[in-house]
Amino acid sequence: MSETGVFDDSAIRTKSQDRLGRAQFAERVAGKISSAASGPSTVFGLTGEWGGGKTSLLAMIEESLADPWCIQHFTPWAASDPGTLIAEFFATISAAMKPKLRTKVRKSMAGILTVGSAAAEMIPVAGGAAAAAAKQAEDFLSRPEPFDKQFRRLSEDLRKAEVKILVVVDDIDRLHVDELMSLFKTIRLLGNFPGIHYLLAYDERTVCDVLASTPMANQSSERALKYLEKIVQYPFATPPLQPVHREREVASSLATVADRCGLDMNEWARENDAGRSSASDLLGLIPRSDLTTLRSIHRLCEQLEVALLSVGPSEVDFYDMLLITYIRLTHPTLHRAVFDSKSSLLGTGMTYALERAGRPQSEWQAEINRSTDGVSEGTQSELRNVLHYMFERVPRADHRIARQIGARYRPKRVSDATYFDRYFYLTVPLGDISDRDVIAGIEGIVQDGRLLSQSDLVAALSDERKALAAEKANRYLLNPESLRTASAGQFALASTALCERLIEEPEHSSPNYETTRMVGLLLLQAMSKSADTDGRQLLDDFESRFGPVRTAFVLSSSGVYPTDENREDRPPNSVWLENHRRRQYDACIDDLTGSTVDRSIGVLGLAQFLDFETRSRVSRQMLQMLDSGVELVELASRFVGSSERSGSRRPGDFYIDEFEQFVPRDRWTVSPMASLDIQQSDDFTEMKRKIAHFSLASESL
Length: 701
Fold this sequence. Notes:
With 701 residues, the chain is mainly alpha-helical. The protein is 54% helix and 4% strand. The protein has a five-stranded parallel sheet with strand order 2-3-4-1-5, with helices on both faces. α7 links the parallel β3 (165-169) and β4 (196-202).
């Protein structure tokens, strides 16, 4: 990268600057040119794709040529028309001669080139003969001395002067067809002059495409190549970029981008468990036909830097943005197809397994083929592997290829529905909230213990972005790096402030999972930063303020409750939850015995949150109640949803699975009940008894 902050695509000037191991190749080409010095005029070629380093090689070849070579550069694409091109070409050659010789041969060469100019104008591809050029040709050819005699005399003068002129012509692949043909015909016209040699640099495929459009080639690439071979006697192909140089350039360029974007990407220089660097894995993923020149690598990195700085470097995944940028630059139609296929691309492979029959593997490949028309089948298959790396729903083309750059399930990936649009709009879209604002908002809430009205996070939590903002906040709260020094009290105050703002007492539906989890993760941070008994006290204070059901939702969503099958509390959670579990048990027993005045909390509302031990204790108590004569229907009625608060239970539904967790089916003995007969005079307690009775009787049939 240059001092301007832009990747420097300029050609090197000396062999000492060579970092691709091509200096020796340049010396060998220079040796071949030197060996032809005393012979007839020779046209050498240096071929290579655009951005492949031809201009740098030209500089090293020139440096490797010993005196007394006189090297002149001709820029054909700077000429405005074929006539000007020929005049400039003559000026370039004459400028290479010593003054005395230049004066002596100028008149003869001018005459010869005048004929050449007229001849060039008479080439059909040039659009017809110009009257002035024809007149010049007629005047010249009518002179007493024949053309071939002038040519021989001029050749002898050049031979005696021991002229060694090398005309270097770069970028002839930039010329239009008429300009290219004029250049080639002029070179052929002067091709027999001794001591004047040519070194042409070009992309062979491009030049052949231009030549194929002439009547001479008649759209035949083979004929175009044959014609080019008549002009260029000794073409030398630019050596391809070696894998080690390619990997080194990718690694260093991407590290530069990361540094300029303020990202720590040192892993580019490290090896993974397989002994490969991340840069190596990247190049193993991208089609082998791409990123084969320094220019293409630098172009990708420039575009990547702009994309990252546009959306925000910390708002997307570095590797996914790199690959999306690569597809946008090299396969724009495929890039548009990916954007249009958003709904079918998002999600994980496991999620998609059930739906896969609707989008077979062949359909994915067909979509890629349609979007990359003209690309080889091998490249199309490799592109499918690139898409698979970003989107699991796209099957791999080759199951032997399973390279990963970083962890598969890392945050902010393009396959995440909440981040996908950022990769294409290159900004945080409307309806979204930036991760930076989320983190700043969390820091403000924790540090101030209250919701700041000017916070973008607080604003998002108050509008239609609430669930999305809470989800992003939760990802950060799993490992809040910037809040390591915050105290338990600060986290506790933050959880209280958010619970008051975001979570109402559950009635007929569960509170939003993400907002509830956000409160829970803040409370968990508070307890984690406290001694075990202090953490228990924090939870007791929270529950006394918000009640057992709201507290249970908060603890469940944040992972404080056990997740294993037996649901046993383990330290330090078991210490924190000690009083909480006791209160849950007491609330269940009070509900079952009818001894509580507040019937808003009961066994049905708490059943889903009980650990194995508490549930077993409640179950034993219920079985003892049955043994003591309490009716089964009386206990079962507690598992009918009511208009009273019972978590997310629907009024009038009997939750038979939950009831079975406490009372096994072998204890279900009830009298038959043919139909559910609800009377208008029945109070809700009686209605619940009848619903429970009818449901149990139906199960017993």
